[in-house]
Design a protein that fits this description.
The chain is an all-alpha fold. It has one domain. Helices cover 77% and strands 2% of the residues. A two-stranded antiparallel sheet has the order 1-2. Helix 1 runs antiparallel to helix 3, helix 5 runs antiparallel to helix 6 and helix 9 runs antiparallel to helix 10. The model has no long low-confidence stretch (mean pLDDT 90).
Length: 332
């Protein structure tokens, strides 16, 4: 029972991370293109300034929870995907430094360099998270000792790369919805137009990926949730056309959340299938910690999770207003 609960909780943590960090990534990728002037790019950075670092905490908690609840899953995943995860970490570090150093010097050249650092620091993780999760769902070579026996090229297969395209375009769509919701004037109009174009690309990629996933191994409940995710994306695009940016953002958030739910439903009761032999699959039972460990973790989660959610919700409420270039002072 506790194994199931923690599998569910880890899925919730990844949903929280991809929904919240997803629009951060999307905004960072769109930053050099939608922000045509230095002031507009500063508007975009300020739009996520109060929340981006809080959003990143979700991945730390997800990784820590995996380590504590399913240590064998954690060991196989982080050793086998070491280089990919290292590149993700490098991207997150570069992106974080870029946010902090962007305005440290009053120089257009300086800020433009950090703008591109934000772009690459957002695009690389957005792509590689999709590659990683696609490989987890499809299965990777794992032997009887729960050790990954492939290499980086094993992970860069067509199915996984398509998964990377899906997360990249979905996060860009989500980011465009957030920009349209948080800005005014020309930025808002550009974001609305970008959402339609990128959203259609994301929809096509997602439909192909989710269909490919079900063809490999049909899981009916996962397929149903996948269809709901597609409908949520269509709803987001329609809401955007009607200038209902709030609903458009809810739609893209729901799309990402349902897509993650579909992938975890497809996995269950496995946590990391083996493409070598299904007998070597890592499951919620053979990869988990002891019942006592899971019980203690559950008690801690019940106490502290509501507090964290309340605090983060309060942060978003405080910084809910739109911003525009008119409120950004000119650089001297």
């Amino acid at each position: 029972m506790l194994h199931d609960i923690w599998f569910l909780l880890i899925a919730v943590l990844w949903i929280g991370y991809f929904v919240l960090e997803g629009f951060d990534f999307g905004l960072g990728i769109l930053l050099p293109f939608l922000g045509r002037t230095d002031r507009e790019r500063r508007v975009l950075i300020n739009a996520i300034g109060p929340v981006w670092d809080g959003n990143e905490v979700w991945v730390l908690v997800a990784g820590g929870a995996t380590f504590a609840a399913f240590p064998n899953w954690y060991a196989t995943l982080f050793s086998g995907f070491y280089l990919a995860l290292f590149l993700i970490l490098a991207g997150l570090i570069i992106r974080g430094v870029a946010f902090e150093y962007h305005s440290k010097r009053d120089s257009a050249t300086w800020r433009k360099g950090w703008d591109w650092a934000i772009f690459f620091g957002s695009a690389v993780p957005a792509l590689l998270w999709g590659v990683a999760f696609a490989n987890i769902v499809a299965g990777v070579p794992i032997d009887k000792n729960m050790e990954f026996t492939g290499n980086l090229l094993t992970l860069l297969n067509p199915f996984a790369l398509l998964g990377g395209v899906v997360t990249l375009t979905l996060f860009m769509t989500h980011g465009a919805a957030y920009i349209a919701l948080k800005t005014e004037g020309d930025l808002r109009e550009r974001a609305n137009k970008a959402l339609v174009v990128i959203g259609l690309v994301a929809a096509l990629a997602a439909v192909v990926f989710l269909a490919w996933t079900q063809i490999q191994s049909l899981v009916v409940v996962s397929a149903v949730v996948s269809v709901l995710a597609a409908l949520a994306l269509v709803g987001a695009l329609l809401a955007n056309l009607l200038k209902r940016e709030g609903w458009a953002f809810v739609g893209t958030a729901l799309t990402i959340a349902l897509a993650v739910v579909a992938l975890f439903l497809h996995l269950y009761p496995n946590v990391m299938p083996s493409s070598t032999n299904s007998a070597f699959n890592l499951t919620i039972t053979n990869a988990s910690s002891t019942d006592l460990t899971l019980l203690i973790m559950t008690i801690v989660a019940v106490v502290f999770t509501p507090l964290v959610l309340l605090y983060q919700g309060w942060t978003y409420w405080i910084f809910r207003k739109r911003i525009s270039a008119d409120r950004i002072p000119e650089a001297s």
